[in-house]
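Slide 14.
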Amino acid sequence: MNGPGWDGRQAQFQESGAPNWAAPPGQHAQYQQTPPGRPGPPQPFVSNAMQPQQPQPQQRPPTGQQQQQQQASRAKLSQRKSTVQNLTRKQTNSGIIVANRTLDEETEDGRIRNREASTKIRDAWIYRQIRARSDEFTQYKQGRVFIGTWNVNAKGKDEDLSSWLCADWQTHGPPDVVVAGFQEMVDLNAVNVAVENKSQQRSQFWVDRIAATLNSRQNTLGDPMRTYVQLEAKYLVGLLVVVFVKAPHRSRVKYVHSNSVGVGVMGVMGNKGGVSVRLQFYDSTLCFICTHLAAHRENVAGRNADFANVYSKTSFDIGAEAVQEVIRLGSMSQWATGASSVGVSDHDQVFWFGDLNYRVDESIPTERVLELSKRNVLDELIEHDQLNIERAQGRVFQGFDEGALTFQPTYKYQPGTDLYEERPDKKLRAPAWCDRILWMAQEPGHVAQLNYTRSEVNFSDHKPVMSTFLVTIKDVILEQREHVYREVMKLLDMYENNSLPMVSLDRINLNFGEVRYDQRVTLPIVITNTGQVVAQFRLVPKGDDTDLCKPWLAVSPTYGMLIPGERMEIELTITIDNVTANKLNTSREVLDDVLILRLENGRDYYLSVSGTYARSCFGMSVEELVLYTDPIREVPLDPIERAEKYDLNTKAAMCVPKELWRIIDAIYEHGLDERDLFSGTSGDPDEVYQIRECLDTGAAFEDFSVHSMAEVLTSFLSNLSSPIVPAGLFPNMEIDAQNIQMFTRKFLEDMQPIPYNVFIYVISFFREVLTHRQMNRLSPAKIARILCSCLVSNSQSSVEESANSSNQRRGNMQQLFLHFLETNSI
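Slide 15: predicted structure.
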């Protein structure tokens, strides 16, 4: 093959003219798409009493957009319930294991029973019945909740806070609950983070300031019923959350608990993290979480990880009595597997706020962000807001909602002014909506945002943000609730007093057929109670296993209870991700498993699950891909069959994988001038799937969009089982103009032959892409970032390696890639 690096270890790039490319890696007609040698590449609280909600709420009917938002919220809530793990229960990657403290018991007649599991499953059924009839004993009332968040940058003395805390009282009236969150109460230096020597003093300062503002003569008019009472305050280094409630409501607040989670230095320190307060307000449970997430514009993954850590580690030990009361109120969604603790998702309404630190995406230059922010032209910035992007992709804040951003970015300002920071002696930072307020509700219609804006108090480099919500609160009529409870228990007792449980399954053998890479396939099993008594079932691990099933299989639900004649679907889902694909390709895994469904006080049922993996080039290594000229789908998974068909001791058949050449060739032929190539425009999911199929089967490409091709290319390189650039090749010293030539030579010399070929081939392609930069609007720096994310694995940094060191090493890699893209020769 001709082209850079094919005939030796010297990389010589051409400065102009036709690109020096490799010929197609393989001479089979079905792969030669171009000639050989072608370049390839609802009523409010009033006074001191809550008013019941009227049958016709005095609210405007939701608009079409609001209805869509509510439907989307319900969909996200359903997704969250199935994906987020609560610390109060033992859960595996395939589902919840109900009984985790007591062992199964075997009776003399061979029947298996677990009393802990039986009690919890029974209580879960009772909860479900009471929740379904909650309207019979619940009246709904409306109140207002104010949420404010502010990064004070370790400043603040005697400034007036009314423009932040009381700005909309004339419009919406004083709120019933006031929650304020602060970040950076103190400087986040090593001493303050380690010993918190100033945090208590500063937190009390801000609590006193808020109390003085809320209870000022101007606000209360001397009326004790208009005053606010502090419920709880929780701080962690620079973080503080404080909750006030209007005095008339204090008697209806109970089970107030707080928690803090540090996720900063070493994953535990309090320079970053969250503080939270939960409570029962009348008969609804509310949770307020104030967080400060990872900084720096490029560190989106760090912020997502901080959110997930705070979410999963936030837990409140409210006591068994409180849990049982909430159960009888019909308020909790997933409680049965816990004891006395509840997590974030176990609340009717959750409000999450703070300096979340999400910025405007780096694809917009800092100067452009600054210009648009000063002109208050926000549409382009909102479109590229990192939090909006990450939420849309389902990577963070699953199930949460946020109001529209109608105010200018709240960071970064010159302290004491209303000017964005542009002083020449300061680092120029892109303005951003770092300070945000989101919410989540079990019933999406029970939270309505009245406003979402910012205050112009200016002594910090952040502007305060605030929002007022109209919330629907439950007020249970105890007598009616007990009546419903007695009816449910009477029905249950009638069935429990009969004989043994019996169920039928519509099938016990599930064959998923051919399953493809990055595909989710779901098959149901229908379980029916054919007996005369209630039937409780649960999935249990096999033997000494701790998981219910293999990692590529998920089951929902993993337990349940059926009254006679009742039926339920159990869904089993196979997902082939990169880890599973690699194990299947290397014969370390097969799509075959057996699940045990245990009928409490009854027998076990064995469910057989099987499938066939349709082999894919995704999740394989380039060293193996170059061995085969046949389509990878035709290469047997079984190592014996593979050895019989191919002589694996011979030299590689190709210099680079044929699949890589086909994608690059298609982009070269049709898309080098495509606007925004490799830059923000996603491919069509159906086309991406079809392109992968063409690569795996050898079928010719159809008229696919260039952006779909580009997405497949980056996905292919990112999902190799071994990255092109291993951790051992990371530069461990600072790179500068004097030593970059030495580093690039050593980098190439240390690469293995096949990864070397792929690296040179990909670099050559992107050098050609850059010759069309006037049309595709790509830059060397942008391509260097793309290559760093595709060719260098994110998992290569060791656990012990600091974030700064990891970022420096990746920055060095970007410099190397940039050098390869811009230099004439090395």
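Speaker note: Residues 421 and 427 are 8 Å apart (CA to CA).
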